[in-house]
Amino acid sequence: MQFFNTLTRQQEEFVPMEPGKVKLYTCGPTVHDFAHIGNFRTYVFEDLLRRYLRYRGYQVTQVMNLTDVEDKIIRKSIAAGVHFKEYTKPYIEAFFEDLKRLNIQPAEHYPRATEHVDGMVEMIRDLLQKGIAYRSEDGSIYYNITKFPSYGQLAHICVSELVSGARVAQDEYEKDSACDFALWKAWDEADGHVYWDQYEDLGKGRPGWHIECSAMSRAILGDSFDIHCGGVDNIFPHHQNEIAQSEAFSGKKFVNYWLHSEHLQVESYKMSKSKGNFITLRDLLDPQGNPSRRAYDPMVIRFSLLSASYGSRMNFKYEGLQQDEKALERIVALLRRAQEQTAGESVDDLVEKTRAEFIRHMDNNLLITEALAALFNFVTDVNKRMDAGPINGQKVVEFWNEIDEVLGLNLKEKLQTGPLDEDIEKLIEERQAARKAKNFARSDEIRNQLLAQGIVLEDTPQGVRWKRSSP
């Protein structure tokens, strides 16, 4: 298995620190708003990585942090006139609801920044003692990046050309602002009710954003771990600052493999509220107030977000969602057809060939686009074989269920399972009779009546099929 390591800009063989076990840290949400689909592109990639590592036999310990105190949260909570913990609560709940809807496996740990301030203070005190951090005129504490010789390595920037002793207090800043960053921010009036005042040597204030992840990862995974993930926008300054803080504190290499997902654009434009193309997951699941848009199955959204390799930029289009919907319907149609054939010609050769191709592509830096192409070739080949005669369809379903442990699309739930109510069966029979009598108005009326009850009908050459619609 190989991954492209952002730190070295090379594809490297993956060798975990402890055989058979993987320690994985994935940057989670800053809970000041609902997560948008660009965020979920990253979270779905991280879930795919987690699932594939498990598929390949690794025991995974994943940490996904929740940033529940930082600049935006403070500004918005003060503007709303509520305590910052009260302000973040509904967004935290919404985040976990959205993870569940997209069938993203739960991480083993979800630390919140506000629960680890003691660990942050411990690191800040150590960096002060070593002379790597210093106190500014207003009482804030900054990290002196010139004290860390390899600063800029992750982002591949030359610090000597950019630094002039400047400081930056903001949590987020641009790549051309490489300068000393805040570890501890002295309280001022703009911070309102948000501060910690029990650390007398640091003074009344709050931690900076970057020290939060260093402390949380250390508390759970230790000074060093295997893989750190996030979006490319986190490479600088956030992840670069994590390395500087953590390695200066521990004297050990912080992370062995850095994996970053590329940006997601919407209809070829950068997503922004000013352009009107800022889309949350909830906008796609329930587009209230936008009659020109329809609701999409969450598994269609998941499939769309995972179908482009994580290292490639993704251009999200509504037209693409509709194409992805048809692609999933093609797989479901195969599985329905296959499950009806319990005996016949073996498909072991197709299964083994496809499994080997899937693993080969996924081992190669999670090349999901190529892996999916192999799966759709399998769909075509199996359909051709069924056209020629009966097959052992159970093997097809079993193989798909195996692969779906990696993809997480839950398509088996869309297969016909469980008996229908007698009233529904009678309606289906009545519709068939109406179609034979060419009473298409009544046929369409019954179809819509069943759809309202969660039953979707499909007319095929083999007869009518039904499925339960997604919630």
Q: What do these coordinates show?
A:
- A hairpin with a 2-residue loop joins strand 15 (455-460) and strand 16.
- The strands form 5 sheets. Strands 5, 6, 7, 8 and 9 form a 5-stranded mixed sheet that branches. Strands 4-3-10-11 form a 4-stranded parallel sheet, with helices on both faces.
- It has 3 domains: 2-261, HUPs (Rossmann fold, 3-Layer(aba) Sandwich); 310-414, Up-down Bundle (Four Helix Bundle (Hemerythrin (Met), subunit A)); 422-468.
- The protein starts with a strand and ends with a strand.
- The model has no long low-confidence stretch (mean pLDDT 92).
- By secondary structure, it is of the alpha/beta class.
- The protein has helices at residues 37-55, 71-80, 84-101, 117-129, 209-221, 235-250, 281-285, 298-306, 318-339, 348-363, 368-388, 393-407, 422-436, 440-452; strands at 2-5, 10-13, 21-26, 59-64, 133-135, 141-143, 167-168, 180-186, 205-207, 225-231, 255-261, 264-266, 269-270, 314-316, 455-460, 463-468.
- Helix 4 (117-129) packs across helix 5 and helix 10 runs antiparallel to helix 11 (368-388).
- The radius of gyration is 26 Å and the shape is elongated.
Could you give a quick summary of the protein structure above?
With 471 residues, the protein is an alpha/beta fold. It contains 14 helices and 16 strands.
Chart the SSEs and their pairings.
Layout: E1 2-5, E2 10-13, E3 21-26, H1 37-55, E4 59-64, H2 71-80, H3 84-101, H4 117-129, E5 133-135, E6 141-143, E7 167-168, E8 180-186, E9 205-207, H5 209-221, E10 225-231, H6 235-250, E11 255-261, E12 264-266, E13 269-270, H7 281-285, H8 298-306, E14 314-316, H9 318-339, H10 348-363, H11 368-388, H12 393-407, H13 422-436, H14 440-452, E15 455-460, E16 463-468
Parallel strand pairs: 3-4, 3-10, 7-8, 10-11, 12-14
Antiparallel strand pairs: 1-2, 5-6, 6-8, 8-9, 12-13, 15-16
